[in-house]
Hints:
Distance between the termini of chain B: 45 Å
Helix content of chain B: 25-40%
Number of strands of chain A: 11
Order of helices and strands of chain B: EEEEHH
Radius of gyration of chain A: 21 Å
Strand content of chain A: 15-25%
Largest sheet of chain A: 6 strands, mixed
Number of strands of chain B: 4
Shape of chain A: globular
Oligomer: heterodimer
Strand content of chain B: 25-35%
Radius of gyration of chain B: 18 Å
Structural class of chain A: alpha/beta
Largest interface: A-B, 42 and 33 residues
Number of helices of chain B: 2
Helix content of chain A: 25-40%
Structural class of chain B: alpha+beta
Shape of chain B: elongated
Amino acid sequence: MKYLDEFGDPDLARALFDQIDAVSTRPWAVMEVCGGQTHSIIRNGIDQLLTGKVELIHGPGCPVCVTPLEMIDRALVIAAMPGVIFCSFGDMLRVPGSHGDLFTVRARGGDVRVVYSPLDAVTLAANNPDREVVFFAVGFETTAPANAMAVHMAHRRGLRNFSMLVSHVLVPPAIDAVMSSPNARVHGFLAAGHVCSVMGTAQYRPLAERHHVPIVVTGFEPLDVLDGIRRCVLQLEAGTAEVENAYARAVPEAGNRPAQEMLLEVFELCDRQWRGIGMLPASGLRLTADFADHDAELRFDVGEVRVAEPTRCRAGEVLQGQLTPDACECFGKDCTPRTPMGAPMVSSEGACAAYFQYRRLDPSAVRS
Amino acid sequence: MATVDFGGVTKDVCLEFTPEVGLEDYVIVHAGFAISKVDEAAALESLRLFAAMATFAPGPVGERDEAEG
């Protein structure tokens, strides 16, 4: 496809790699924030190509993975209620809660549906006026405008049977948390390209200054990722800490104004619990009071949710970049995409799933 | 709403956030919404810069000439 295939050209990738190789005087640790980039890196072997030069640390940018267990348990209770049509993006269905997942709810007779867009859930609400349609709104700034628009439309159309279980999170507070951790060993960041398509690049400047780290807005194809790393390494070698845009074809500096306006109209900042990381102040979005009628948390009484974190799953360490998935003793044995113990093994943006899909047959990993 | 061709698969996509998009444009789509119009000039500029690096950067002898040809 145009503007995708060209950005996977092996000769140009070689040129970018050569430059990284030529300028780096010491091994640097660079975190790719976004799970989509993690998958691109592992799939294309970029981390292996850069062994000894740049260590890529996988960041917490997998929305399904950082959704707190308590929220998943709440979703399971609502989805099992009679009269409810529970809608979600497909990734969420297999994420284990304390007791089962959304598939389990469906197997027991719950009406759980996968939708491609939150607008599909609005259409379901319009077509099923006698049912309660609940959409599980999970995601970063890329997804939030779509979900905001869905609530806005449902509100405008007077669809009182449409509500959202909101668990939105934001990228900048996550970068701040990574750098504020006493174990921080990240020298530079690749910021998530499509998050910046929506939000623009300005909000990363205070972070780059405060923590003195280069932040390079980066795309997802192999050349995009390599160019992001190259620019990050050039800055690290020069001792600068600027925000750079290596994904100009999809990221205008100001972002997408209509999408930002929709966010501001429907959502407001709130503190959020991140799975594996903990509570981060002003790190998420919730519906404003004007849209309280569409807030599933207010509409459905789920009672007291008792959370039971799985004991052997080390997803928390993976999400903080402290453990690579294949170093977990459950990886590929007790924990696979078919029988996941934690969310990173489920999601198409999860680091464990990336390693399972592209790395488990690595001959160098076989011990005889 | 508009019809977007994803390399052979077509889908209806909401253009509410990208009113400037017209026929034959390339867009980035997320959750059924176009969130960005691909800036073709910027895409070509990136590729031009990468190609310049491939031509002029010092690399292992032999491989570079082949890549150019």
